[in-house]
Amino acid sequence: MAPKKASYPSPYKRTDGTFSVLVDVRVGAGSSWRVRWNFVGQKRTEKRFPLKEEAVEFAHSLWLSYEAATLPGMANQPPADLGSLASRFLERELRPSTLHGYRHILAHFVASVGPSRRLKNISTHDIDTWLSTRSQMLSSASKASYIRCVKALFNYAIKQGWLQASPARHVTQKVERRRVQYLSRHLWDAFLDACSPAHRIRCKFMLYTGIRSGELLHARWSWIDQGILSIKPVPEDNWKPKWGSSREIPLSRHAVDALMDARKRWKRGDLVFSDHLLTSWNSCRETKKACRKAGIIPIKTHALRASFATHLLALGVDLLTVQRLLGHSDYKTLLQHYAGISTKALGDAIALVDASGDVPIEGLFPLETTPIHRAHSAGRQP
Fold it and tell me: How far is residue 253 from each of residues 21, 260, 276, 338, 341, measured CA to CA in Å?
């Protein structure tokens, strides 16, 4: 019976379930110390040293690099648990409002499922249990937002190659889509007259360009050239348009008038609609206040953007053009949110037909005297 090989305790061994590094000795001819390290599920790497001290020093440097997340090839290593996944998901470049919403929802989700849970051990049952604890206090719209957030988390893990399938893929929540708020064109002047001076300038520009509030707050004079507004990222503010929707918007006469008023009111720096960078302003409160003063049903400030879109659609502008002006990622968004505007657009289209003065030939004859009707009456094809 062959004698057992002598075993020696490792002078250095570290592991956290995701990354491991070990120092052991190779006994025999050309004895040496070796360092072996690997991420779980990946091939082990090995390096040899003649002295134990050198091997231990190298192994310790590997572990320190791992803890500092500077180890080569570590950028796309799978997170050890759900808490780590949520942290890496939130470290991406996201708009502040989006980041705030994600952080709030994921804090509840991670606490419910457990921050130390391995990704492969999270099941559909965990998602259902978490949702059941929130259902009593959430509206259907809020529940849909929670579901979208968790789905985005696991879809991110799939995209990175850390998961094969999302445990939240089966969860859905139908929400009754509300008709979009907007101001009809004939109400614009009354609304603007009821606004406070600063709010009037900003709202007028939104009504005649359809830009978002965030785009308005970050607008620079350098964006404007020869009657064109070019919406673009602002690296110094770490700001990007939603969906990366950099675009150009030709300015109407009314939009130019708003810019002239802005130049007179805000004279400091390169910002168009303020003297210093604002993260927000009391837009919805000011908008609703102006609506009540003008005798209009109160709306949110975002409805001014929708007002621009509906006015264009009522004028017969095609969906793709409206999509480009608004910066939507998909024209289907317009179909979903502005479907209720079609009646007005159709009415305008019929008015154009009436105004043209052309009358269809069939309209000159009573129905029973038309060639098609006579042919059917005789029992033969026309």
Answer: 68, 11, 26, 26, 25
3-class SS of residue 229: strand
The sheet with strand 32-39 has its strands ordered as 12-15, 19-26, 32-39, 45-49
Q: Contact at 8 Å (CB) between 112 and 106?
A: no
Kindly report, residue by residue over 183-198, the tens digit of the pLDDT.
999 999 999 999 999 9
Domain boundary among 67, 90, 111: 67
0.85 surpassed by pTM = no
Q: Do residues 188 and 307 touch, judged by C-beta distance below 8 A?
A: yes
| CB of 302 closer than 8 Å to CB of 202 | no
Tokens at 14, concatenated: 């570290």
Tell me whether residue 40 is in a domain. yes
The answer to whether residues 28 and 152 belong to one domain is: no
In whole angstroms, what is the distance from residue 35 CA to residue 11 CA? Answer: 11
Q: Which two tokens stand for residue 91?
A: 């470290």
